[in-house]
Amino acid sequence: MKNILLFIYRNHVFFVFVILEIACFSLIANNNTFHRASVLSSSNQFIGRMYDLNNEVKEYFKLRMINNQLAVENAALRSMLYESKYFSSKSITSITDSVSNQHYTYVPAKVINNTTDRRSNYLTIDRGILQGVQPEMAVISSEGIVGIVKDVSKNFATVISVLHKSSSISSKVADTEYIGSLVWEGGDPTVAQLKDIPNHVQLAEGMLIKTSGFSAMFPSGLNIGTIRSFEIKPGDNFYSIEVKLLTDMNSVSMVYVVNNLMRIEQIELESQTEISDK
Amino acid sequence: MTSDILKYTWQFILLCLFQVLIFNNLNLGGFLNPFPYIYLILILPISIGRIPILFIGFSLGLVVDVFSNTGGIHAAATTLVAFYRPLYLKAQAPREGYESMALPHLKTFGFAWFIPYAVLIVVLHHSVLFYLEIFRFVEFFHTLLKVILSSALTLFFIFLAEFLFVSNKRR
Description:
Chain A is of the alpha+beta class. Chain A has 3 domains: 2-78, no CATH class; 104-164 and 255-260, Thrombin, subunit H; 169-248, Rod shape-determining protein MreC, domain 2 (Thrombin, subunit H). Helices cover 33% and strands 27% of the residues of chain A. Chain A has 5 helices and 12 strands. In chain A, the strands form 2 sheets. A 6-stranded antiparallel β-barrel of chain A has the order 1-2-5-4-3-12. Chain A has a 6-stranded antiparallel beta barrel with strand order 6-7-8-11-10-9. In chain A, a hairpin with a 7-residue loop joins strand 1 and strand 2 (122-125). The radius of gyration of chain A is 37 Å and the shape is elongated. By secondary structure, chain B is an all-alpha fold. Chain B has one domain. Helices cover 69% and strands 0% of the residues of chain B. The chains are: A alpha+beta, B mainly alpha. Chain A binds chain B through residues 12-14, 16-17, 20-21, 23-32, 34-35, 38, and chain B through 50-51, 54-55, 58, 61-62, 65, 69-73, 75-76, 79-80, 83, 132, 135-136.
């Protein structure tokens, strides 16, 4: 004990110096958050690492819960987006003209679901009965045709895509007035097939295919696509034509539902004719 | 003795004021931060006790720290210098020892003695100061350049003070 006191007394200058320096460094550490962080991180590195390890293990078991939380949050945020809002106003464009009667009206709609990879593809749009959408109305995009309305609910409608096995759309080769029907044989969603064009018609690649207007759904003269290739199979009286669709069915988002105001009249008349024919 | 205490207290206050009000506000391109307040440690009497000089150094640095908002880096540097100075003076002592009332001035001991003394103290102080300020070795050479340039400027001010304010008469 005596020796220790003697040692301290002999080196008392050094001890005072050390104490003063310790005071300085504690002042530094207290003053500056950067210094504080550095000092703390080096002195508590071991404890910090233990905490990290512990946390990592715990977190792994919490992943399912965290995933659910994030999914719920995502859904909440997504529902706040502009795209999630449903605008219920009847935004129907119609033109009143005293000379020519309105034949078609258009309901703008948004595609909210779409497939192109199946043999029979459907779209869902965000307009329904309340906005004047009825079954068997045509759906077009600004580039070309999209499909035909199948079922409607209050605010939604399903659409039979052009890319459907039973889809058959009356169409014509522009400038020739020859009528055929456009079908889809599956596969490439950008290409459809045009049937029933007789083999004496002069065709060229790039010729425009339009709607004929014979179907009581589509107005006449709407663009469908262009001829990509054509051939006459041996012994066949008709062309096999590949049509490149103008509407990109993969990315179509804004569409119009076509309301033919005289459709019922036309259908009734046609069915009368068919009945009287029998 | 009392007059000496008054004299050094006055110098203490004066140097702190000069440092805080003038030299801390010098903006010379980032590399030149002179700290001439360390002059006080240089000119304290050789006969001063090791404990008093430690406390003078500590309080000098602390005052500058408080006014520069730097925590304790000046105090740490000045305390180290105050600890080191007596060791240096002891090692450099002439064979017959220092005169009892000798003051470590340029005109008392001459260039050959004063220049290494001042350079060593100033560079030691500035090194501790700047490396504590940075607190990492990533910018080692950048800081070294800062130490060298600032020390040179501080030494310039110290020599200026030695020529201007120290009378030729020996005490």
